[in-house]
Amino acid sequence: MNETAVYEHLTTELKSINCMHGFLEIRRVPELKRELESRLHKGQLDTAFFVKNLERLEVSAPTRFAEVNSLIIIAAPLPLTRLIFEYQGRGRPVQIPPFYVFKDKLAAIRKALGRSLGAAGYQIADARVPLKLAAIRSGLARYGRNNLAYIQGMGSFHRLVAFYTDLPAPADAWFRLSEMEECTSCGFCLGNCHTDCLNPDAGNRFLARAEKCLTLYNEEPGELPSWITPWLHNSLIGCMRCQSSCPLNRTFIRNVPISDTFNEPEAMAILATPVFGDLPGALQEKLVKYDLQDYYDLVPRNLKFLLEWEL
Ligand code: SF4
Ligand code: SF4
């Protein structure tokens, strides 16, 4: 099969699971990390944030390939997940942002890559690269003023994943890091961020203060800094405020059905059980449907914030 046919087959397979993709030439990959380092040196990224989140990214291609030619960045659309937890006699809405419930979609992506690239004899390996930056440089995504990546037809309701492959990139894409034109006369996200992460005075997405983002903290177990007051939490993990206020996400926010209800004994069991394996089997199964076993070290703490603050 010639390369053009492989590109077409890849596109067809990814489209069949509603995913989109972009390519970067392999020589571009180290530039992604250099770009982040340059922001650090210009004082646009907090040092502690950089060390904790970005330094561990790997930008060297896998050595087990004879030849690694490109990086494929894939965007998978994901919905907002809405749950109800009954607590103290009332059903309480709890949301999971469109990022965390991903296992099934990732499995489907791997299969689609296998059917297209794998079947044509190309190799694939997971890549830990700065995904948002890679998506934007490849032309797959655009930056919103809220510092999120936006994809045509998905808004910011998606998750990115990247793979190395020996299939050459079809072109040397390296798109500008410009903000979406829709942001010019908007700014809703700035007003809806309550942690001062999106600095309206700066008017520049690169000055988003990532170290002030709630997501950074409530995705980690343990005690939260004292400036994160309980009322700031709005999701079981992460934060939805700048996404839910964005006009480009309006269609994805409307009419989201309730996926499940956790009754009061189940809610109480979660609040009282720090270890996933100690939960009753049926409750474990219910949480697994939302990939919450992977985040369970955060779930009782974060759920407590949501249930107790709204009383
Ligand atoms: S995710 Fe939340 S804390 Fe982070 S920028 Fe958006 S609104 Fe602010
Ligand atoms: S809310 Fe407005 S300014 Fe913010 S990312 Fe969306 S379109 Fe851009």
TrEMBL record:
This is 4Fe-4S ferredoxin-type domain-containing protein. Keywords: 4Fe-4S, Iron, Iron-sulfur, Metal-binding. The keyword Iron-sulfur applies. GO terms for biological process: tRNA queuosine(34) biosynthetic process. One of its GO terms (molecular function) is 4 iron, 4 sulfur cluster binding. Residues 174-203 form the 4Fe-4S ferredoxin-type domain. InterPro entries: 4Fe4S_Fe-S-bd, QueG.
